[in-house]
Amino acid sequence: MAQATVLTRRQAAARPRVDEPVRSSRVVCYVGERIYFSTLEPEDAPVLERWINDPHIWANLSMRPPCNAPRERAWIEKLGSDPSEHVFGIVVRAEDRLIGSVGLHRIHPANRSAMLGISIGDAGYHNRGYGTEAVKLMLRYGFEELNLNRIGLAVYAHNLRAIRCYQKAGFVPEGCLRDSLYQGGRFHDEYRFAILRAEWDAAQKVDHPVRRAARRTVELGRAPQAAVACGSL
Ligand SMILES: CC(C)(COP(=O)(O)OP(=O)(O)OC[C@H]1O[C@@H](n2cnc3c(N)ncnc32)[C@H](O)[C@@H]1OP(=O)(O)O)[C@@H](O)C(=O)NCCC(=O)NCCS
Fold it and tell me: What's the 101 CA to ligand 1 centre distance in angstroms?
């Protein structure tokens, strides 16, 4: 079981609390411990355009460049008018800095299901726990605000950082789509993960049986790296 982090009194005091007001020039939609979700606005288009065309970013996403400024602006302007999509900017509270975006897509009211997508475009903010916090915050939003029952996602097999991030947030592997992506001169597998409301509820309670079950070693598909990736569940 993961060791709880013990903070000194000074560290605890310095740590922002979810219920503390966020001072920001941006619109504050949903607040976490170190990040908050904001609306994405047309003035964010240049930075989003730079991120989405970065090969280190798009190699992990289903889109392909080029995505020019008018296309990026059109995407942002459409947000909010489509009820099947809820997309937010991820902002670091301490710096009031936009670092990426996260969204629930293909929201289905009858099935109460959606697909999660996330991209921290500013690589200086990778591997610092912001992705995991944003995914967890989005799960809270999806289950507690949208009353969803199932949140799924797709991730390419080579994206080990994202797989680890999703596992930390409680996602369970469901399957492998072999040779789903052609990139860099060869095919790559794609994994599907999901989390159900009951699993998420249970995971809020420490060491609940459902959480223990979700940690079981699950071997996915045929790729050896899948077994490694999913073995640490
Ligand atoms: C994927 C992404 C959201 C993860 O967010 P992040 O803030 O970088 O990730 P976190 O710091 O929360 O967690 C990353 C975990 O992966 C681990 N990790 C990093 N590189 C790894 C690798 N090559 N192999 C295995 N684990 C790795 C980290 O050590 C960390 O785990 P730990 O906390 O147990 O040490 C972010 O990196 C990102 O947006 N990347 C570009 C776009 C993308 O890939 N989007 C997802 C498409 S499915």
Answer: 15
